[in-house]
């Protein structure tokens, strides 16, 4: 995955979030829409894709959340990389939705 493909992925996930936001009622529903869109995609990612996500992301992994996921799942290194990819995608998609005015 190159930078343009990563940007397209973030756009597609932001589209999913915005589609769900039309029926959202309050902050919790908005947050659920974000987590659901990214959460549905990340478990399918192979390690190489996760590494590409990490290489092209604007955000940095959320170390506390990565550590929490790793502890809950007794994770191996592949799961840790997947958790890092999840956290950067979560932040990048959130930023894209916000930049588009999707939360207003």
Name some characteristics of this structure:
mainly alpha; 104 residues; single chain; 0% strand; 5 helices
Question: What's the short story on this structure?
Answer:
With 104 residues, this protein is an all-alpha fold. The protein has 5 helices and no strands.
Overall spatial form: globular
Largest sheet: number of strands, sense, barrel closure = none
Provide the structure class: mainly alpha
Q: Which spans have pLDDT < 50 for at least 5 consecutive residues?
A: none
Q: If you average the pLDDT, what whole number results?
A: 87
Secondary structure tally: strands? 0
Q: What is Rg?
A: 13 Å
Share of helix, binned: over 70%
N-C termini distance? 31 Å
Order of helices and strands: HHHHH
Strand content: under 5%
Commentary on this structure:
- With 104 residues, the chain is mostly helical.
- Helices cover 75% and strands 0% of the residues.
- It has 5 helices and no strands.
- It is globular, with a radius of gyration of 13 Å.
- The mean pLDDT is 87.
Note the topology.
Elements: H1 3-21, H2 27-41, H3 47-56, H4 63-73, H5 77-99
Helix pairs in contact: 1-2, 1-5, 2-5, 3-5, 4-5
